[in-house]
Amino acid sequence: MFASIQDLLRKKFTIPLLLLVAVSAALLIFALHPLRAQTADVPKDDNSLLEAYRHVEVASVSDALEQVTGKKMYMSHRMRPIFPSKFAGIALTVRLKEEENENPTALNGMLSAIDAGQKNSVWVMVVDNGADIAGMGGLMGTAMSARNYSGAVIDGGVRDVGYLQKIGFPVFALGIVPSTSVHHYRFAGANIPVVCDGVSVNPGDIIVADADGVVVVPRASAGKILALSQELDYKEHSMYAIIEKAKSIVEAVKQVGRL
Question: What class has domain 74-217?
Fold first, then answer.
């Protein structure tokens, strides 16, 4: 028999209490695990989704896109920033058609499209045969910056880079040239499907850019791509310490499985 009521209570409640503590600890570890924290609760609204994309590397997004879609959704090595920058936003697509003209209103549609853009827009402009034509410059960049665009991606050239750097408006383009599109091009449409530096872009797709380049994420699969990108990011960042400690990339790949 139990020596006292205290012994009885101790015997009755000790085991359940220990089980409760163990389960609680396991749940806490699972919830705080870095990989789970990176991939859980994929945001549904655009603002949260874009903010999450701003914290993953374009290389990881590119790998995730290829794994999920089977397609290469990155722009070529020619698409470079005018200064180091990183951004994510929603594609506002525009195309300029090559056409000699004396019409002072030929590009008015382009200007109206800029003024219709919303916060977090990315100006994705295709300038037909425009590697040596400035698709945008300081005036357009100022208007985009004032409207809180995330940035611009130009399948063509860019000018007024000194001023764009001064106001801190990020632009990726095929090159820097002093030329103009006025009298040489005509506005051909906005918020239409385009092919920008070889990659299909639809209005509303998510554009992610950093020092490694530019990728296009189809809006319909943006949540799935984000989750995989975060997982790939976590694995790669985990491998740096393993490589440094083991002095072996083979060992790191064996442990984590990322390359």
Answer: alpha beta
